[in-house]
């Protein structure tokens, strides 16, 4: 594949240049001073280096800088361009000043050999003995030194290539380590690379704990089987609104004479038996078995007392004790559930680095229970008093709610950790690749230094 022609635009003196005819396999270029011979030769040499040199990044940088310095100021074009036309395709190199960006088509490339002053300096040197018979040319002593230097250079290049192969093998080994540890086939060539290894400074961080962190995250799809501990609402069990209203009411006794009231309050069993005897029409006292003359009025008064608003509310107030007992039973039930889950929660917490110290049984609020009982007894002793019960019952219910929230917090954190496990794995994997690159950069510093020296 030979060059047929080339076009250069907006570079040095080449505003829009093309050859008048097709080029041959070997072409001789000549022109006056300033016509652009050196620029053209250097361009072709640099472009060829970007395609054939093993130091491609360095060659790309040199070509970029060369064109950037020579963009024609006289041209109105928005970019500089070199187009090389082969007999089977073309290669286009463009430079955009506004973006300082160099691009190429990267087509199949045939090496170009440029024979200019730099070539002769590299091969026969810049000094020859011309004071010879027949005006011949004899390669002098300087070129022997040049040949020796060239051999030395070739040896250094070979040595550098060997170092590069060694570095690339080490990078590949660390890449394999990454795939094993991270259980991932992600492309990490932007991190684990020869280019990062030979840098003077490495921006990545080394963290030897990352491997253990990754193991803790696991490699299979995690199972989310733990559910938060559930409980009934204690404000419902304690009937907070009902009892708060009831304790606030001044409740008055029914109208009874003092003697009957005392009997009704202190000798309920007597009147209970009396009602049975009265209903049996025995007409006698159930205790002394004598004639019971005022049985009718006494029994009717007792029945009215039992049906009175006072007595019904008194019984309802007494029932608060049962509600408190039910609330305590609910806390005990919750504690049994917590106890049965403790081992599982702790194990899952270790997997996902979650603090499970708060997953403990809920203490019974004995102090609140004691205060509720004191207020209950005060109300029963004096039903006309208005007693504040809402705050105590609310505190009891809120205490349980707050403690249950604390208990369930580790479970929610574990569930959140499980749901975000894929994201965490990806983040740790990235850090592992950076860790391995930094580790290699530190431990193989002598290899890097030798490579740079060559």
TrEMBL record:
Q: Which InterPro entries match?
A: CR006_AAA, P-loop_NTPase
Q: Which Pfam families match?
A: AAA_13
Task: List, for all copies, the residue spans of the domain called Protein CR006 P-loop.
Answer: 22-204
Q: Which SUPFAM superfamilies match?
A: P-loop containing nucleoside triphosphate hydrolases
Question: Can you say what this protein is called?
Answer: Protein CR006 P-loop domain-containing protein
Q: What is the species of this protein?
A: Chlorobium phaeobacteroides (strain BS1)
Q: What lineage is this protein's organism placed in? A: Bacteria, Pseudomonadati, Chlorobiota, Chlorobiia, Chlorobiales
């Amino acid at each position: 594949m030979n060059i047929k022609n080339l076009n250069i635009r907006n570079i040095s003196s080449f505003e829009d240049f093309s050859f008048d005819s097709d080029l041959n396999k070997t072409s001789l270029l000549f022109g006056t001073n300033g016509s652009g011979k050196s620029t053209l030769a250097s361009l072709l040499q640099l472009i060829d280096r970007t395609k054939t040199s093993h130091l491609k990044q360095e060659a790309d940088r040199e070509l970029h800088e060369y064109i950037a310095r020579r963009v024609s100021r006289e041209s109105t074009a928005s970019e500089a361009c070199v187009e090389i036309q082969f007999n089977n395709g073309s290669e286009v190199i463009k430079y955009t000043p506004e973006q300082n960006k160099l691009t190429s088509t990267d087509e199949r490339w045939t090496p170009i050999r440029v024979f200019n002053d730099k070539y002769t300096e590299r091969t026969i040197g810049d000094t020859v003995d011309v004071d010879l018979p027949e005006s011949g040319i004899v390669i002098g002593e300087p070129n022997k030194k040049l040949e020796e230097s060239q051999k030395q250079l070739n040896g250094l290049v070979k040595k550098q290539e060997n170092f590069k192969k060694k570095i690339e093998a080490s990078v590949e080994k660390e890449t394999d380590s990454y795939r094993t540890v991270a259980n991932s086939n992600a492309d990490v060539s932007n991190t684990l690379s020869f280019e990062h290894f030979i840098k003077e400074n490495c921006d990545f961080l080394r963290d030897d704990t990352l491997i253990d962190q990754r193991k803790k995250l696991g490699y299979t799809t995690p199972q989310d089987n733990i559910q938060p501990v559930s409980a009934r609402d204690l404000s419902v069990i304690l009937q907070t609104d009902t009892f708060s209203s009831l304790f606030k009411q001044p409740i008055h006794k029914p109208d009874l004479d003092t003697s009957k009231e005392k009997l009704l309050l202190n000798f309920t069993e007597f009147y209970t038996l009396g009602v049975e005897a009265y209903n049996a029409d025995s007409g006698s006292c159930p205790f002394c078995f004598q004639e019971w003359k005022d049985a009718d009025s006494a029994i009717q008064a007792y029945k009215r007392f039992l049906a009175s608003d006072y007595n019904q509310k008194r019984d309802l107030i007494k029932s608060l004790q049962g509600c408190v007992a039910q609330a305590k039973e609910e806390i005990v039930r919750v504690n049994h559930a917590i106890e049965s889950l403790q081992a599982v929660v702790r194990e899952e917490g270790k997997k996902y680095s979650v603090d499970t110290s708060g997953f403990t049984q809920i203490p019974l609020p004995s102090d609140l229970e004691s205060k509720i009982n004191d207020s209950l007894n005060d109300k029963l002793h004096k039903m006309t008093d208005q007693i504040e019960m809402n705050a105590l019952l609310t505190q009891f219910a809120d205490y349980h709610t707050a403690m249950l929230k604390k208990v369930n917090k580790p479970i929610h954190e574990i569930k959140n950790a499980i749901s975000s496990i894929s994201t965490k794995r990806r983040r740790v994997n990235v850090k592992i690749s950076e860790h391995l690159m930094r580790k290699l950069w530190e431990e193989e510093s002598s290899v890097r230094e030798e490579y740079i020296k060559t």
